């Protein structure tokens, strides 16, 4: 686990990708979905790979995450939570602590504010990504409330962009 104030090794992969893309191609585009959302999308040959909301952390797109699933740590949701995620809802703790859900073991527990890939029961690829709102051990203990704030999911506006 990374020390507080330092980047997680998986986040460094995203950072290296952004640096490489910026130096190698200067192929960067800022695109706003609407007046409330200020999204910077970093592309390579027009394909969105990494995005950033305002000056926040860099996130890989789901399409990049499907190619390189090891970039972010994983959490899993049960079948009942899939429809809520695909509607843009945040992931509640019971959907991740139930029989079909998944949270990392205690020895590799994730702290709050960690970017994660959200996998669904019975699905091969990530269906979303988000930020943990509490540590995974706390999610298991409390088993209520929002566990992961959804940032990007299958079917959202960013997913719909094929090329810029």
From TrEMBL:
Record's protein name: PUA domain-containing protein
InterPro entries hit by this protein: MCT-1/Tma20, Pre-PUA, PUA, PUA-like_sf, Uncharacterised_CHP00451
One Pfam family per UniProt: Pre-PUA
Transmembrane segments: 12-31
SMART domains, alphabetized: PUA
Keyword Membrane attributed: yes
GO process terms (BP): formation of translation preinitiation complex
GO molecular function, one term: RNA binding
Domain annotation PUA: ranges: 73-155
NCBIfam families: unchar_dom_2
Keywords on record: Cytoplasm, Membrane, Transmembrane, Transmembrane helix
CDD domains linked to this entry: PUA_MCTS-1-like
CC terms in the record's Gene Ontology section: cytoplasm
Lineage: Eukaryota, Fungi, Dikarya, Basidiomycota, Agaricomycotina
Localization of this protein: Cytoplasm
Record carries keyword Cell division: no
Source domain of life: Eukaryota
Species: Hermanssonia centrifuga
PROSITE patterns: PUA
